[in-house]
Amino acid sequence: MGSLPVLQWRKFEFVDIEEGADNGVLDGLLKGNSSVTCVCNGRGLVFVGDSSGYVHSLSRSLHSPVPSYPAHETAIVFLWAADSSSVLLTMAHCAGECSEIKVWAPDRIHEEQPILLRVLRPDSRPPPPRNAASAALPPAPRVTAVSVHPNVNMLALGFSCGSVMLYRGDLAKDRERGSTSRVIVTLSPGITNLHFHLSTQTYTAHAPSRSRKGGPATTPAVSVQTTSLLVTTDNNVYYIACTQKDKESTREVDSVGCRSGCSALADGRNDNLFVLARDDAIYSYSSEGRAGCYVFPGTKQRLFCHRGYAVVTTAAAATAAGAITVSSKSVCTMYDLSNKLIAASFSLPAPLLALLQEWGALYGVCASNSASSAPSMLLFREKDLHTKMEILFKKNQYDVAVSLAKGQSVSGEGVAEILKQYGDWLYSKGDLTMAVHQYIKTIPYLEPSYVIKKFLSSEHMALLAEYLEALHARNLHSPDHSSLLLNCYTRNKHHNRIQAFIQKHSEQVTHAKKLKESHGSSRGCGAGRCSTFSRNSVNNAINSCCSQFSSSDVEVLVSVCRESGFYEEALQLTSLHALHSLHLELLCNDTKQHLKAVLYIRSLSFESACEQMVAHGAVLARSCPDETLELLIELATDYTPDNTPIVGEASLDTYLSSKEPECAAPELFESVVCSDSLLAIRYIEGVTKRQAQQGKHQPVRRLYEMLLAEYLHQLEQAEEGVVREAWEHKVLGIISEPRHPVDPSLACLLCDRHKYPQGKLLIWLHHRMYSEMLQYHMSIGDDAALVSLCEAEGTGSNRALWLTALRLLTSPHIDRPRDQRALQAVLARVDEFELLPAMEVIDLLSACGNITLGDVRVYLTRLADREEAVTAAQQTIVDDYVKQSESIRGQIDAIQSSGVVFTDSKCDVCKKELEFPTVHFFCKHSFHQHCFVSYCSSSEDECPVCLPRHNEIRDALKTQASDRANVVSFGETEADDSNERASECDVFQQLSEYLARGLFTDYSAALAAQTVHLHTPATKAARRQRDAAAAAALESSHSSYAATESRLRLKESRPHAALGSSTTSEGRLRQAASARLDTLGTEGEGRIRAQEPGKGSNITSSSSEARLRQQQLQSRGGVNTVAEGRVRATDSPSSVTVPQAEARLRTQGNKFGSVASSPGVRSKPSSPARGRSPFERPSPTSLHDQITVTGPAPLKPMSRGRYDDASNMESISAAVANSRAKVKLADTNPFESEAGNPFGDDFETEDSDNNAFAGGDKSPFKNESKDDLNPFGDGNDYDSNLNPFGE
Q1: Which of 266, 587, 917, 1208 could, after both became Cys, cross-link 597 (CB 3.0–4.6 A)?
Q2: Helices marked H in 395-494
Q3: Among positive and negative, which fits the CA dihedral 101, 107, 109, 113?
Q4: Is the pTM of this model over 0.70?
Q5: Sequence-separated (6 or more) residues with CB below 8 Å from residue 771
Q6: CA of 18: how far to CAs of 21, 38, 346, in Å?
Q7: In this structure, is the dihedral angle defined by the CA atoms of residues 590, 592, 596 and 602, taken in order, positive or negative?
Q8: What phi-psi label fits residue 534: left (phi over 0), alpha (psi between -120 and 50 degrees) or beta?
Q9: What is the pLDDT of residues 660-698, one digit of tens each?
C-alpha cells in the first residue's frame, strides 16, 4: 500500500456546478425557523426532513406529490427511501428515551399524510432478569448509525454504546412471522457508519459430474449471493458476514476509523469496495483489506462515491491574526482515485448534506448554516468524454487520457488512437524508447507499417526489433515482418538472438506435435476415460503453439538463415515445418548432400515424394544415378516410405488386408531422365519389367514413344557393327510389335529425325499407309519398288494403288526418266481394272514431258483396238433406235391421216368376247365398259394397260424438266439452303449430278443427225399433203360433232335447204323439218317449241320465253326413244359402243370407217378450251397430251418449218404435236365466233342483257333461283326434246 501526496495530483475542471437548482422551492417547504437535517431519494422523489420533525417531498417538476406531514415530534436525523418498493423510513431521537424509527407508505395517503406501517423503538440493553429486584436501569443508548438492505428485509442499527443490532424480516409488515431482532455484536463505543454490501461468489463442487453425451467430466460451479455488513467506529473498521441467520461472523479489517458520514460504498467501477475519509488521508478497501491510501490534509465533513469519483467536503481553512481556523464554508473536491487526478474543486456556501443521483443527474443539498443563508440544491454537470479528451490533449496529458478512456470502457480502437497520438508526441520530443512502448500498446489496432516507417534508419534497428518482437509475440506478424526482424538481427550481428529465436520456435513446434499425438491417443482410448481436459481446450492449446509462425514465415526465416550461413538451423526449420522443397534445396544446392536428399525423399509420403522427385530428380540423377533410378522405379510401380511401420495402427483392431500399391504415372518422371538417354532407357525398361512382374499388361503409349525415341537416338550415334544391329533390333521390336501403342505419326517423325527410313516404311506397311510408301519410293527414284508394292498390295479393295502409282509416275514435277517396264505395268493394271477413263490417262501422260511415245506405244495400240470395237457396237444400237423411231412415226402418221379399225374381239381384262357397251383405245386395247370401270382406278381417259408405261415416261420427263429448271452456278447453292450445306458444297459433286441430268448433252444436234433424211424436199411435199387431208378430216369431224340431232336430220332430208347459220337454235330446226320449210322463222325458241302439237294450249303473246319453257318442263315427262339413225349404225357392231345421236352416227359413218363410243371414246378429237360450251364434257386427252411435259425446255430445238413449238423436242410427242400444228383451231371450234354460237338466238333478243347464262348485274334473272335459270336443272322434269344437246 503506497500513498501519494495530493499535491502531485493533476487538477482539471471536468465537472461544472450550478447553484439554485431548486429555484428556492426547498426553502419554501420549511416552516418557521426549521432547517434541513437530512435528505434521501427513491422512486423518482426527493424526501427532506427538517428540524421540526416534518417530512417534505419534491418531484422532478419541483412539486410536492406527497403533502408535508409531521413524522416525529423532534428533529429527524435519518431518512431512507427504497427503490424497489414504496417504503420510507424515518428516525428521530426522543427526549429521555430511545430512538424512534417509523416506516411509512408514501404512495398510500390517508388524511393528508402517508400511512404509518410500523414503529420501532430499538433498545440494545439486555432485558432484566425476572426474579431480580427492581432497580433503576441505565439510560437507553441512542442509535448513531442506520443501514437498510435494498430488499427491505434487513435493518442494521449501530448504537452509541458500540452494539450492533440486526433486524430480519419485512420491515413494511408489523409483527411478521419469522421476523427477529437481536444484537449480533458489541464493538468499541461510538458506531459511526453502517453499510450493507451485496456480492456474488462462485463455489466449485468437490465431486465432478459426468457429461450426458459421454464427454469428459466437468466440475460444476455454484453462484451464491452473500450479504455483509461494514461497520466503522472512530478507530476501527469491521466486516460482519450476515448471510446465514444466527451465524454471523465478525472480523476486523483495519484499525483506522472515521467520523459519521465520512464513509461510503464504492460503485464497482474499480477494485475498491469501501472508502472512508479521515483528516489525514482517504483510505480504500477491497475484499482482501486496505487497497490504497491517498494523503491530503483537511477536516473531512462528508464523503460520497459517484461513478468512480470520491466526493469529499472539507471545512475551508480561514486565516485570522496569523492563525489557521476552520471556516463556516466548505470545499467540495471530486477525486478520481483510479486515474490519480482531481476532477473538480469548488467552494460551497454551506455544508453538503447529501448527494442525490436522481432525475438523470447528480444533485447536492446544502443546509443553511446561518439565518442569512437558506437551504438550496446544487446541480453537478459532468463534461462528456470528448470534451475531457480535448482538455487533456491541449495539456499533452496523454497518459491521463489513456487511463480515463480505459476507465470509461472506451473501445480498443479509441484507446489505440490516443496511444498513437501519445507515441507521436513522444517521437516528436525525441523520446523514442517511450514512443515505441506506446506504439506497442496500439497492437493490434494500429497498422504496423505506420510504426515501421518511423524506425527504418540503421540507428533505430534495436527499437524496430523490439516492436517486431511484440508483433511476433502476439502472432500478428506477416512474412515481411519476420524477414525484417531477422534482418535487424543480422545487421546488429545478434547471432545469439537468431539461434535463440529459432531454438525457441523449434521447441514450441515440437511441443505442439507431442501434444497433438497425446491428444490423438487419448481420443483413441475413449472420451471421458483417458483425458482430463476437454477437446476444445486441447485444440486451442495446439493451435496456440503451432500458429506462431506460418509456412511463409518459416520460408522467410530459412532464406535469412541461408544468407547468414546458418544451414543447420535452416534444415531444422524446414524439417520441423515439413517444407520439403526448401529442405531439398538446402541439401542439393547449399550443403551438396545428394545422397541424404535421396534418403529424405524416401521418408516422405507418396504424394510429397513424387512432387519432390519431379522438382529435384534431375540434379540427383546427375550426382547419384543408381539410387535415384531405383527410387524412380519404385515411385512408378510400388512405393512405400522408409518410416512406414510393418503393421499400421488401423489394422490392429481389424483383420489384415492387402493394400493396393501406390504408384505414379511413369511418364510423370520424364523430365527427370530426359537429359540422360541411357538413364532414360534403363528407367523405362525397369518400369516395364516391374509392371510385368506385377501383372500389369496394359502398356503406356507415352512410355513406349519415349523409349523408341531413345533407341533411335542411340542407333543414330552407333557405328556399323554389332552394337548398331542390337539397337536396330530393339527399334524394329517396338515398331513391329502390335501390342506397343505407338502413335504412327510420331514414330514416322522420329524415324525421319534420326534418319532411319526402314523404320518408317515398316510403320507404313503395318498401318496400311500405302500411299506414303509409294510417294517415298517415287521420291528416291525406285520405280521397281513402287511396282512391287502395288503388285503385293494393289488387289481387291486396294486397286486404287495402281491409280496412285500412275499419277506419281506421270507427275510433271519429277524431272527424271521413268522406268519403261514399270510404266507399262502400271498402265496395264489401270486399263485392266478400269480405274480411269482412257482420255484422262492420255491427259496424264501428255502432261508429263519425260514420257515418250515409245514408252506408251503398247497401251495406246491396245486402247485404239478396243475403242474401234466399242464404236461398231454402239453404231449398231443407233441404227436399231433409228428404225424404231421411223416405225413409231409411221404409226403416228397413220393415226393422224386415217381411221383406226378395232378388230380385237376380246376384252383385255376378262379375255371374253366383246359385247356392247365397249371401250376402245388407239393403242388397240378394248374393254367391256363394266370391266373398264372396275379395272380403271386412276384415270378414265387413258388405257389402263398402257398407263404404267406412260406414267414412267411422264415422270422421267418431269424429273428432267425440273432438273433443268433448278440449274444453279457451280460452287453455289439454292437460296433456301442452310449455311452448313453451302459450306460443304462440292463443285465436283454438283458437276457429276448435272452430267447425270443431261445438262451438257446436245440433244438437238443428235436429233438433227438422226432425222436429216426426213427433211428432204420430196418428204416435205408428201407431208404437207398429208397434213392438209388430216386438217380437212378434222374440221369435218368437229363440225359433225358440234351439230345437233335436228340439224343433222334436216341436212339429211333436205340437203339444199337454207338452214341459216350454225347458231340456229334447235327448236327452229325442228319447226322447219316438221313444216317442210326452206326458211326459218324469227320467233323465240320457247314459243316455237310450245306451238308444237300437243305441247301447249294456253299460250299468250305476252308470255315470256322463260315462263313458256318452265310450263313445258312441268307439263310432260321425258320419254327416250331410239332414233332411226342409231338403228342403222348397228350394222357394224365392232365399231359402235354406246348409243349416240342418229344423225351423228350417220355422219360419222360417212366420214370414217369406224366410230368410237360417245362418252367413253378416247380417240374423239378434243375441242379447244376457248369457246367451249358449259354443258359439254371436257374432251379426253390425246396421246400428245399424255406424253408431252409442260415447262420450259433448257435446250433450243432446231429451227425447222414443222418444229415451231419451242417447248417440245423431236420425239414421239413432238411428232404428234407437229402433225397438228397446221390445223387451225379457230376453224374447228363451232363456238369461236358469234355467228357459230348456237346460244345466240335462244332468247327473244341477242342482247347479252337477256342472256340467262351471262354474268354481271344486268342479268334479268339475277334475283331468281338457279333452278329457274337452268331449264335442265331438275332431273324429274327433264325432256330430251327440249335439250338442244340431247340425243
Answers
A1: 587
A2: 398-407, 412-429, 432-441, 448-454, 461-473, 479-491
A3: positive
A4: no
A5: 801, 804
A6: 7, 21, 11
A7: positive
A8: beta
A9: 778 888 888 888 888 888 999 999 889 888 888 887 766
